[in-house]
Amino acid sequence: MAPQIEKGDVHTPVFFLDNPLRRLLENRNKYSEYVKPGQVVADLGCGPGFFSIPLAEKLGPTGHLYAVDSDIKPIRLVERKAAQRRLENIEAHHTSASQLSFIQDESVDFVLADGLLCTMATSEQAQAVNEIKRIMKSDGSAFLVAGRVSISHVDDQKWESILAEFNVIDRNHPPYKGDYWALVQKRV
After folding, report:
1. Is position 14 within any domain?
2. ∠ Cα 6 179 51 (to 5°)
């Protein structure tokens, strides 16, 4: 059954999310430092697996990675890449990050949401934040990144309200230059 994707979600063409130029300019392993073998990770808004594949490799066979995207094309690519690399620890889901009922409460060690919230319909952002908080372990963390491009559904005020939902470990500070980013933990 196809997920209910609200009008207003922005889907970037797959080629822009995983191409030779991006692989040259951006480190695919930049989030690997936040995970350990055997952990559970959720990559929300995973696209074609630019970060999912390296994370799954670091997690190893005892770890588990949920790859979630509201666009079916990149999910199929994640599944294909996982099969080619014999990564059996990836579970791909075509759904919105606001609908994660297949992930148990407090079961995820690390949530990656790189480019997720800025491309979601504004009305679904709060539910996605609630889902991130719900699935994170009490000692888990999340890395949130929201782009500051013309299509972004996040502005300075919205970003600050998102961060108010968490304990912030590290972040960029106003005046913002480049993307918004923050490493956060669940409020307990």
Report:
1. no
2. 70
Q: How many Cα atoms occupy the beta-carbon half-sphere of 162 within 13 Å?
A: 31
Q: Whole-angstrom Cα distance, residue 142 to residue 112?
A: 6
65-69, 103-107, 115-119, 159-163: segment of lowest average pLDDT: 115-119
Measured from the Cβ of residue 183, the count of other Cβ atoms closer than 10 Å reads 15
| pLDDT number for residue 2 | 40
Q: Is residue 117 packed enough to be buried (19+ CB in 10 Å), middle (13-18) or exposed (0-12)?
A: buried
Structure tokens at 105: 């409460």
Q: How far apart are CA 163 and CA 56, in angstroms?
A: 27
| Predicted pLDDT of residue 6 | 41
Q: What are phi and psi of 75, to 5 degrees?
A: -65, -40
Q: Let me know if residue 137 belongs to a domain.
A: yes
CATH number at residue 166: 3.40.50.150
Residue 160 and residue 18: Cα distance in Å, rounded? 29
**Is the whole model's pTM more than 0.85, yes or no?**
yes
